[in-house]
Design goal:
This protein is α+β, with helices and mostly antiparallel strands. It has two domains: 118 residues, no CATH class; 117 residues, Tetratricopeptide repeat domain (Serine Threonine Protein Phosphatase 5, Tetratricopeptide repeat, Alpha Horseshoe), CATH 1.25.40. The protein is built from seven helices and eleven strands. The strands form two sheets. It has an eight-stranded antiparallel barrel with strand order 2-3-4-5-6-7-8-9. The chain has a two-stranded parallel sheet with strand order 10-11. The termini are far apart.
Length: 242
């Protein structure tokens, strides 16, 4: 589509388009080297360490060493994540998402930029959150949840059920100051995807903004239990425990 956005269509065994793979590239320039390099940093990782910035989106990324492995703070999940080299394509994979990064060098061989690849896989159909949101607007959140299960039990081929769709709806409601509705959607998401750390992190945030500190603490603790690398959850939990 552009130099920063690529896509392809994937087909099923019958040749019918069933999904679209979308990739957005974001060049992030190196702002500064890391002041002090930890002694346990392998020599091959040292050039990557430092702070990177993408001014148009006000995004800053810090690449660091953690016990001899490469880590970065992901600007989209808001948590530190380990980077794992994919030998097949030469990119570093973020272990908690489908996204990737690569490092670029200048003429002298110095790392001066990283490229962030946001990879999104979109199945053909309508997100379940669209139907739920429409029903909430018309009849309230209880009916919205009933609509979710109605469509799920009907095995509707036109509906796309995934964790991210419900999570985005919850945050949309939360940003509109519809805290009660947001909490119910996040609770639904946690029930449907109990092994996801992110759903508990979002539910903890909603409870915190609603003044329910005890429930906020419980959900942040569950999120960190599932993902010990959830630095955002640790920060919020520390605030709540003060």
């Amino acid at each position: 589509m552009t130099r920063q956005v690529n896509f392809r269509f994937d087909k099923d065994a019958d040749g019918e388009v069933e999904a679209m793979w979308l990739q957005q590239l974001m060049p992030v320039s190196k702002k500064a080297e890391q002041d002090t390099v930890p002694k346990d940093t392998p020599d091959n990782l040292q050039p990557y360490l430092g702070e990177y910035v993408y001014a148009p989106a006000n995004i800053e990324i810090k690449v660091s060493n953690n016990n001899g492995e490469l880590y970065m703070n992901d600007p989209y999940t808001k948590t530190d994540t380990k980077l794992q080299m994919n030998e097949e394509n030469g990119k570093w994979e973020l272990t908690i998402s489908n996204n990737e990064i690569s490092f670029e060098t200048d003429e002298d061989g110095n790392v001066n930029q990283l490229t962030y690849y946001q990879n999104i896989y979109l199945h053909k159909g309508v997100l379940i959150s669209n139907f739920v949101e429409e029903t909430i607007e018309e009849s309230g959140v209880d009916e919205g949840i009933n609509k979710y299960y109605e469509l799920k039990n009907a095995n509707s081929e036109n509906c796309i059920f995934n964790e991210l769709a419900l999570n985005n709806l919850g945050h949309k409601l939360l940003s509109s100051d519809k805290k009660t509705e947001a909490i119910e959607i996040f609770k639904l998401n946690a029930k449907e995807y109990p092994e996801s750390w992110n759903v508990y992190d979002s539910l903890g945030e909603a409870y915190m903004k609603n003044g329910d500190e005890k429930l906020a603490i419980m959900n942040y603790q569950e999120s960190i239990k599932l993902n010990p690398e959830n630095s955002n959850g640790e920060e919020r939990l520390a605030e709540l425990m003060q």
